[in-house]
Task: inverse folding
């Protein structure tokens, strides 16, 4: 069974870079079985897909975030990371990592595994 665990700073200042890490157990980030995704949920709002990195290292991200989003993976640590630059207070949210067996840009039923989520507050 795959387990995912988010980690990273819970407070980021506006205009700075939000950086989070997802540690994977039970599978490898290099597997061809999963796309490794980042998803967030602002307070009182719905889930928003941020982006993914696939088994071959290819990435995709939401058009609204593409220019500010970078997703990478570290095979030796079995982790994948999110870097979101120039953040604003509106991007305060619970951030999740999640694994999907195919490309999935927001059908939440299609994600097999989720981390528990980590709160990130963007505030000065």
Result:
């Amino acid at each position: 069974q795959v387990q995912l665990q988010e980690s990273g700073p819970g407070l980021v200042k506006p205009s700075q870079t939000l950086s989070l890490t997802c540690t994977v157990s039970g599978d490898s980030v290099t597997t061809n079985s999963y796309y490794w995704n980042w998803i967030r949920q602002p307070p009182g709002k719905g889930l928003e897909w941020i982006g993914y990195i696939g088994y071959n290292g290819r990435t995709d991200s939401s058009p609204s975030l593409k220019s500010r989003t970078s997703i990478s993976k570290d095979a030796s640590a079995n982790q994948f990371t999110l870097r979101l630059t120039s953040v604003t207070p509106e991007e305060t949210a619970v951030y999740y990592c999640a694994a999907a067996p195919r490309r999935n840009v927001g059908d939440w039923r299609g994600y097999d595994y989720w981390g528990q989520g980590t709160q990130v507050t963007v505030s000065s």
Summary: The longest strand covers residues 18-25. The chain has a mean pLDDT of 96. The two ends are 39 Å apart (CA to CA). DSSP finds no helices and eleven strands in the chain.
